[in-house]
Amino acid sequence: MKTVTNQFNPTNNVLLKLMLLIAISFSAFSFAQNPMDAKAIGILTFETNTIDYGTIEKGTNKKRVFTFKNTGKAPVFITKVKTSCGCTVPNYPKAPILPGETASIDVTYDTNRMGKFTKTITVMSNAEEPLQRLTIKGNVIAKS
């Protein structure tokens, strides 16, 4: 019959110390983090969600600007801006919009198309509201 003795093994001692050091490091790191930073999110606040061109003459007055501010606590990245038809062309910031920063989305409508129109612009981002819809509307008449 064999007897088992509990012998001191220096390798196990070093391994135990290393594991303890790693555990303490992770604990200290997690306490050092600000809990608000983990939940920080960007918020796009538009001055208006609808722009009315009113009644305009054919081929004129094409561009409008949607101005917004990041009122959140984290940068906002606009990933894509999609329009409801090819007659509306958006131009938007590709760089992150930092907290407190103001920026704009330019929208150009093809005013060579006659008649009343209502078009939707969908803004996709990492903001608190990841999809935001903007609208342009108006009436294009013949030149006088």
Radius of gyration from CA coordinates: 29 Å
Low-confidence stretches: 27-36
Task: Write the CATH fold name of the domain at 44-141.
Answer: Immunoglobulin-like
Bin the helical content: 10-25%
Sheet of most strands: 4 strands, antiparallel
Strands ordered across the widest β-sheet = 1-3-6-5
Number of helices: 2
The CATH architecture term of the domain at 44-141 is Sandwich
Could you characterize the architecture of this molecule?
Mean pLDDT is 85; it is low at 27-36. With 144 residues, the chain is of the alpha+beta class. The chain has a domain at 44-141: Immunoglobulin-like (Sandwich). It has helices at residues 10-32, 35-38; strands at 44-46, 50-57, 63-70, 78-83, 88-91, 102-109, 115-125, 131-141.
